Amino acid sequence: MPGWNEKAIPDQSGRVAVVTGANSGIGYAAARELARKGARVVLACRSERRGGEARDRLLGEVPGAEAELARLNLGDLASVREFATSYPYDRLDLLINNAGVMALPYGTTADGFETQFGTNHLGHFALTGLLLPSILATPGARVVTVSSGMHAVANIDIHDLNSERRYRRWIAYARSKTANLLFVHELARRLAAHGSDVIAAAAHPGYAATNLQTAGVQMEGRTVAERFMRVGNRFFAQSAEAGALPTLYAATAPDVTPDSFTGPSLAGWRGAPAPSWRAPWTRNDEAGRRLWSASEELTGVTYDALKG
Question: Could you read off the pLDDT of 139-162 as tens digits, one per residue?
Answer without folding.
Answer: 999 999 999 999 999 999 999 999
